[in-house]
Amino acid sequence: MHDTWTGGEQRTSPGRLPGTSPHGPASGAPGGSPAGEPALPAGPRRSAVATVLLAPVSGRTWREYLYVLTSFPFAILSFVYALVTLMLGVGLLITFIGIPVLAVSLLGCRVIGWMERGRARALLDLDVAEPEPVRALQRGEGLTARVSAVLRSGSAWRNLLYTQLHFPWALFTFVMWLTTLLVGWAAALYPAWHWVHPAYMDQPGMEMWPGPDGNTWYLDSTPEIWLTSGIGLLVVLLTPWLTHGLTSVDRLLVAGLLGPSRLATRMWELESDRGTVVDTAAADLRRIERDLHDGAQARLVALAMDLGLAKEKLLEDPEAAAEMVGEAHGEVKLAIEELRDLARGIHPAILTDRGLGPALSALASRCTATVSVTVELDERPAQAIEGMAYFTVSELLQNVSKHARAERAWVDVWRSSDRLFLQVSDDGRGGASAGGPASGPGGSGGSGLTGLAERLDAVDGLLVVDSPEGGPTRITAELPWR
Fold first, then answer.
1. Looking at per-residue confidence, does 153 or 89 come out higher?
2. pLDDT the model gives residue 20
3. Cα 350 to chain centroid, rounded
4. DSSP string, 10-64
């Protein structure tokens, strides 16, 4: 069932394709532009012929040439170091010395991995993240703990494997590249140096192979000379593409063996998310304590004092006592309202009882702009995700009220596969960013959106901000369904 809520009134809306918003594709959602990147206008493209002709002189080609050229000697040194130290450590395992030798070997392989990532970053434009650190080394623990941690480090053993696999591939790549490059240029420039053969070698041209009649075939006629040059030029033009294909294997080796493992990356993400959740929970508890102390608690203390004074004056001045009781009754109503607002901030009853549609409609009625709320969900998500969605929209609408200077705003909620999408957009002044110097929705400070992005990341969510200067602002949040 698809329902649209506008300022507390419900109306039926037509369905739409999953992953799209009625006000345009959601940034970061299926059908939208990449997260944080505006769509670039289509410009003139270099023709395929020009790309092929300019490939030998392009910066990418020369960087890949330099990478292949330096890979061969570096691979030899890395291979020899890893093999010798590994064999030495294994051979000394019958004594205690072999274990520290193996640890030193693995640490050296980690250094090699660091250097290889730097070469790939500088020459192949491949930015591979650092692998997980050896924590015992960071904490400065004892020698035994350090050696044990190094030997149990998966990244160190992957770096060792890289040194053994990279050497034969670097040798093959270097031979292929150098042979193709030299043969190509030698053949392409053959018209310029073919005179060397008759002048100094007593041959009419470059000696090839014996012909059918047993006579040697030389490249000496004008058509043969220029045909050889044309073939050489073709090889020269194809050499950059061959090199790029060869270095693609190097990219796979570096990314697969020298970066962090998927399991380790996930572990670090979970640890970071756990810290975010703990910090958020502590901040919420401090906020609740502050609201109770400064709001309802202070009002109830004052109420108790007023009732005490009214009790004392009950016999002496009944009219004054009645007036004080009436004022205390008003204070009780205000205290109840404050406690109700506080409970709504923790978890609103309307969200528990009726779901996101009515709850977001109630939020929209308190916004300074006219808000249209569209909720298209066939079923309710998990309770924790539903609460996260509610408070995400609540914070974004608060920013619209405080900073956007908008007349209209839209809230859209829909499901695509196993993800829940929220989009809050407005026609305000724009300039929002989730970490820059300027902004929440419509130009507010970025710290609020940064904190919101961190809280969403703690549950494998995502926040994407699309807010050019001058507006409009469109902020999309993505959450797991369960």
1. 89
2. 47
3. 35
4. EEE-----TT-BTTBPPTTSTTSPSTT-PPPPP-----HHHHHHHGGGSHHHHHH
Separation CA 419–CA 464 (nearest Å): 15
Q: Which pTM does this prediction carry?
A: 0.54
Closest CA to 301 of 328, 269, 324, 263: 328
Whole-angstrom distance, CA of residue 115 vs CA of residue 472: 46
Nearest to 18 by CA among 280, 376, 458: 376
Cα–Cα distance, 247 to 115 (Å, whole number): 17
Q: What is the pLDDT of residue 182?
A: 92
186-221 pLDDT, tens per residue? 888 888 887 887 778 777 777 776 656 566 777 777
Output DSSP code: residue 403: I
Do the beta carbons of residue 476 and residue 377 sit within 8 Å?
A: no
Looking at residue 481, the DSSP 8-state letter turns out to be -
How many Å apart are CA 213 and CA 224, to the nearest integer?
19
Non-local (6+) Cβ contacts of 438 within 8 A are 431, 432, 445, 446
Q: Strand, coil or helix: what is 309?
A: helix
Alpha carbon distance 77, 63 (integer Å):
21
Q: Which parts of 189-214 fold into alpha helices (H)?
A: 190-193, 196-200
DSSP 209-226: EE-TTSPEEEE-SHHHHH
| Nearest in space to 396 (alpha carbons), one of 462, 449, 460 | 449
Q: What is the spatial distance between Cα 385 and Cα 394, in angstroms, rounded to a whole number?
A: 14
- Cα–Cα distance measured from residue 207 to residue 45, given in angstroms and rounded to the nearest whole number: 44
Task: Count Cβ atoms within 10 A of the Cβ of residue 185 and give its class: 0-12 exposed, 13-18 middle, 19 or more buried.
Answer: middle
User: Over the stretch 273-317, which tens digit does the pLDDT of each residue have?
Assistant: 566 666 666 666 666 666 666 666 666 777 777 777 777 777 777
Angle at 451 between CA 448 and CA 454, to 5 degrees: 150
Strand-pairing partners, residue 6, are 9, 372
Q: Phi and psi of 420, rounded to 5°?
A: -105, 125
- Eight-class DSSP state of 440: S
Rounded Cα distance between 432 and 425, Å, is 11
> Rounded to whole angstroms, how far apart are CA atoms 408 and 395?
17
Query: Where does 292-404 have alpha helices with state H?
Result: 298-316, 318-346, 349-354, 356-365, 383-399
**Identity of the residue numbered 170:** A
Report the alpha-carbon distance of residue 132 to residue 159 in Å, rounded.
12
Q: What is the pLDDT of residues 130-186, one digit of tens each?
A: 887 776 555 556 778 778 888 888 888 999 999 999 999 999 999 999 999 999 998
CA distances (Å), origin 345, targets 120, 339, 340, 341:
50, 10, 9, 6
